[in-house]
Write a structure and sequence with these properties.
The chain is mainly alpha-helical. The chain contains 8 helices and no strands.
């Protein structure tokens, strides 16, 4: 039996695990809380999120349900050849930073569409000019 690291699909396990981690963090759930909801240890959930252990279909359904999503959404836009979509890598990296997660949560609480568009314009302008970089 081939080890997961030898498998041509191990990168898919990492992508799905990354999506689980991103969704969990956006919802503000700890690994311990999500693990309890799906009936595994937090260490096992860590292995799922890192792509070290494969997730069975029934467990994936339980994870999706606990995260208020579907298994299909956890697969996202993994390409037909199994490659990751670069935009997801950026999103996953963004919510992996404490600042990115805080910015995302604060932005989601803004109800005024005009204010949201203005903030988006500011951030877009800063990122193009490189002024947001240190």
């Amino acid at each position: 039996m081939a080890r997961i690291v030898d498998s041509p699909f191990s990168h898919i396990d990492k992508e799905v695990g990354g999506r689980i981690r991103a969704r969990r963090r956006v919802l503000g759930l700890s690994q311990t809380v999500l693990a309890e909801r799906i009936g595994v240890t937090y260490q096992q959930l860590q292995k799922y999120e890192n792509g070290k252990n494969r997730i069975g279909s029934s467990r994936l359904q339980a994870i999706a349900q606990a995260l208020g999503t579907t298994p299909a959404e956890l697969f996202g836009n993994i390409g037909a050849r199994g490659g990751a979509v670069p935009e997801f890598d950026q999103i996953n990296q963004f919510v992996g930073w404490a600042e990115g997660l805080a910015l995302n949560r604060a932005f989601a609480r803004i109800n005024d569409d005009k204010v949201r568009r203005s903030i988006l314009g500011l951030i877009t302008s800063l990122s193009k000019d490189g002024a947001a970089q240190t």
